[in-house]
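Page header: ASSEMBLY MODEL / three components / 1053 residues total.
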Amino acid sequence: MKFPKNLYYTETHEWVKVEKGYAYIGITDYAQDALGEIVFIELPEESDELSQGEEFAAIESVKAASDVMAPVSGVVVSVNEDLEDSPELLNEDPYENWIVKIELDDESELDSLMSAEEYENMSKE
Amino acid sequence: MFKYLPHTHQDIDEMLKTIGVDSIDDLFAEIPDELKQCEIDIPSSHSELELREHFKKVAGMNEPLIPFMGAGAYDHYTPSIIPYLTERQEFMTAYTPYQPEVSQGTLQYIFEYQSMICQLTGMHVSNASMYDGATATAEAMFMAAGVRKKKRVLISATVNPNVVEVVKTYAHYRGIDIVVVDEKDGATDFDDMKNKLDGDTAGMIVQNPNVYGVIEDFEGYSDTLKEQKALFIMNHDPSTLTHLKTPAEHGVDIAIGEAQSLGVPLSFGGPYIGYMATTKKLMRKMPGRICGVTEDVDGKRAYVLTLQAREQHIRREKANSNICSNQSLMALFVTIYMATMGKKGVYEAQQISYNHAHYLHDMLLKLPQFEKAFDKPFFKEFTLKTTLDVEKMNRALREKGYLGPLSQARFDENKEGLVTFAVTEKRTKAQMDELIRTLGEL
Amino acid sequence: MSVYYGQLIFEKSQEGRKGYTLPKSPIKHYELNDKYKRADCPQLPEVSEFDVVRHYTNVSFKNHGIEKGFYPLGSCTMKYNPKINLEVSSHENFTTLHPYQPVETVQGVLKIYHETQKMLSEISGLSKYSLNPFAGAHGEHVGLMIIKAYHESRGDHKRKKIIVPDSAHGTNPASASVSGFEVVEVKSNESDGTVNIPDLKEVLDDEVAGIMLTNPNTIGMFEKDILEISRLVHEAGGLLYYDGANLNPLLGIARPGDMGFDITHINLHKTFSTPHGGGGPGSGPVGVTKELEPFLPAPVVRKAGDLYLIDGKGKRSIGQISHFLGNIGVVIKAYAYLLTNGKERMKEIAKMSTLNANYVKDALKSVYKLPVDKVCKHEFVFDGLKDESIDVRTLDIAKRLLDFDIHPPTVYFPLLFKETMMVEPTENESKQTLDAFIDAMLKVAKEAKEDPEILKNAPYSTPVRRLDEAQAARKPRVKYKDLLEE
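Prediction written out in full:
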């Protein structure tokens, strides 16, 4: 199980990567493993406004379904449309395949998230 | 010992030994004694001969009538091979196909059923069946509200009032508002729909042919509804889709209806079968089971329940519908109906129904007791205005062994004198002529 | 493998072939106005009658049914479906009745409806039943609407929560949700999956509309504190809903009504032997206490003097939930089953189903992990193999059982354990059948230890082998036309 160091994590198994004022959001290795073979993702639309903790996408596997929560607030500037045709990319590399790119509203929200180490400890429990 | 309970005393003794208790009663020790005092007063056990005798008597208390009524239940011909095949134990005694390796039979016929429903409706995807046409309509209402995240749905006054009632019941307890769109000359009032449609509306439900048997004209509906992002939901008698414009051609988002008209016996109202079909876009929002194609490890074509992440056993309280058991065996029933009657036969049965209904319509209008209720096209069911006392009329018909037309006053007392006849390929010219004669003499 | 394998009826179609006859009609042709016509003709198959018979006979061979072999699906009660029930319900005096025939002409079928209502009341200890609900889930939906209508009728609008144990079937929370309730989960006791009373007390307040319980619960344990639970829920102003999926082991022994339940649904396709039909039609009658009778769905069947009548919607009824009177054809079969068994047999059904479950459980618990080692009722759960060092999952065990012509138990439900296998043998199975199942289970366990690959690649002898379910869901092909477009 991978826990890349440079990311922020949530208790609900999303990750955030911050780059030049933008945040990329995806699901963790732990999440994709728990879901199993991912078969579908329902994506938000560009310019949708997300607020922290809000469900913004839904992921379906053969035997499970899970909502993806926004770790931080912001406006969607880009959606990873590759996932529409190939949702299995989330199984193959959950950290390379982000779900949405958003423009961060409030960087201080990042403080409420976990570090790689904290998240790794949490997922081991 | 009983015919359904196989254990001998010796079996029981050996089993109790394995379990390590002295008596079967010990297996119920944890149930509080105060609960165990129940006495059940139901009839005594009937032998098979006694049961047959009893049923002979009870069945004799029914008097089947030859129907000239439809109102959601149509008397079409059922080919003999259908019950013969559907009663095969492999189909009838199986559970839901959750173990696909030993359920390919069920899964294959569901796939064939879905394919046929899509052929009739022109829609992209059908589910594996719903309970009946009325609950299918209510589920479509839920689906629209769920997809659009809005709590207001319109329904035409020309939808069968029983269907409207079921939709209203489902909606009420879930906090969804149902707004009835008025009728005008036996059809939906398009202007009233436009007035009542707003940005908070999740969808609009219509029925075709409608409760009067009228074939409605849905010109402009789809575009108007799209402007407000409301879904277009159509309850359509699937048997008439051999001839009529398909829901897909009308631009419908969700097609539903009662598929009893595809050869299912009247059976006092059940079991019947609701169908539901939708567009590719809404496929993952549709309730109910869906069967898809895949391959097994050897590359062999196989069928499997798919898109299960939509369903209650996975989504639990987040599922948009709670349906699990459906009417699977009835789906097989209508599948074999459509296979046996085939491309030509389903069409021919409907064309004969159409001819017969129009013949009866024209002949009744020659009687002074009847006049047109609306100047609208119809298929196999039509509504006339009569000067006759409807009760008296139906009594006279009953004496000849007929079930007379539906009195619309059954649903709305203001509609006294409006009667709706249904005619299928099963009604002969002799029966129709006798009906005409009987009514002419009143 | 048969030459008939796998083809769809569409693939057997030959242009011009017919499988039907219709009488010649002397009525002239009337033409539908072009304006209302569809553009093309629906592409239904063109096959002969014999084609149809052979096709569906071969399709049927790909199914496992209860008449072929053992079918111990937990929570589904796969009983024998007596043939006499089919015979008597197929009488044309039932099958040719239009639902709107005058009541005087349908007294027989109404008598069956009415007497079945009464028998279900007797058996469950509730006052009155509606047989209109089509299935168990439909019954739940109806029951929850009744709970809501009851509270609303008393002006109590704040009761928005329904309590559901974490061991419940997924349908329970889904039904609560579609009835407009919020779902509150209560934890089960780890020792036996029964309701945790302190946890229950914690969630009980004046916003609770009711609780949904299955008794015995989904791991086959009787809720021994049921009287305490019903007292607590009633004191908090809530109602108790009984999910009748597991009624079988209580027939003639104890009644939900006496336990304090206010509303029940009963699955006629489980407890009362009507066929499951590959997923339906079922029937899910809903019963209520005297106080709740006015809320039952319309239409209502009742007896006045010697005449059976159908009443429309009463003032306090939740309304209509079906077009007509439900799956009446299913009700007729259950009625025949009730009369065949009669009052003499109810208790025996409960006892034998319980005996069978305990026998299988105790014969296998040395090899399969039994998370709750107590006396069960009609069903129980294993949590995979006892030897946890063996690398096979419940799914593998289930798939291997298929090679023994045994339908596997329910797997991965309830969610309380990781490798759940839920076994329900039913009272109709002989000791010899149970012993054969026990032998097969032991053999599979032995294989798992010696060569787990045998299980992981199973099944081998079924019409198809393990499927690629991800492919089906990623690129859904859901009709024949989708296959042609590839």
